[in-house]
Design brief:
By secondary structure, the protein is an alpha+beta fold. The chain has helices at residues 5-10, 93-102, 107-129, 133-147, 163-170, 174-186, and strands at 14-18, 23-25, 33-39, 42-47, 53-59, 64-65, 79-82, 86-92, 191-193, 196-198. The strands form three sheets. Strands 1-8-3-6 form a four-stranded antiparallel beta sheet.
């Protein structure tokens, strides 16, 4: 969590609710708001010219969403889309930046958040770039499970993504993703219950 919810509300933030598939912002839009997840999961994605989705990152409860874009004059280079039902705090960026100017000590927290985002990005890139398809998916599922605060107990984490989304996140086509998940089930790495993947 970058900023306490009470602080954001005290300077004018409002709470908004999103259903799975709802856009928080679109690629090419002008960043005008600060968004912070109260609960739920959000993906940052792009689509190429043929319509294939590429998922850049998965954000979970308490994460800021695209906060690093508030300090540039660029448009969003990606979409932010709710994966699950989400509650998000939304604050006009001008109000946040004014508050930070009045409280410069909070810039340390901002730097920590940006560093966390970069670290997560590099870890994800490493995990999907140099492993077999099984290892890619396993590493990504492990990362997601840790970020949701789940213990090491097997099959206690319900993956909040479709097989298509997992493929888009790991650079695999959906057919390969489906085959790999079936193989992981046979090897007792995951369990499938009502088409849901438990890791």
């Amino acid at each position: 969590m970058l900023f306490k919810e009470e602080l954001l509300r005290s300077i004018g933030a409002v709470e908004q609710h999103y259903n799975p598939g709802d856009y928080i912002f679109h690629e090419g839009a002008n960043p005008k708001f600060y968004f912070q997840l109260v609960n739920g999961d959000v993906k940052l994605n792009n689509y190429n010219s043929s319509g294939k989705e590429f998922i850049q990152s998965i954000l979970t409860s308490k994460d800021p969403v695209g906060e690093y874009m508030l300090y540039t004059e660029n448009m969003y280079p990606m979409n932010a889309v709710a994966i699950t039902n989400c509650t998000i705090i939304k604050l006009c960026s001008n109000k946040l930046l004014h508050y930070l100017d009045q409280n410069p000590n909070l810039y340390v927290d901002l730097c920590k958040s940006l560093s966390k985002h970069l670290y997560r990005k590099f870890v994800l890139m490493q995990k999907i770039s140099c492993h077999s398809a099984v290892e890619r998916l396993k590493e990504v599922l492990e990362l997601m499970k840790q970020e949701h605060g789940n213990t090491a107990t097997p099959f206690t984490f319900e993956v909040p993504m479709t097989r298509q989304q997992l493929g888009s996140l790991t650079g695999l086509c959906v057919e390969t993703t489906i085959r790999v998940i079936k193989k992981m089930e046979r090897e007792k790495i995951v369990r499938i219950v009502n088409r849901k993947i438990l890791y």
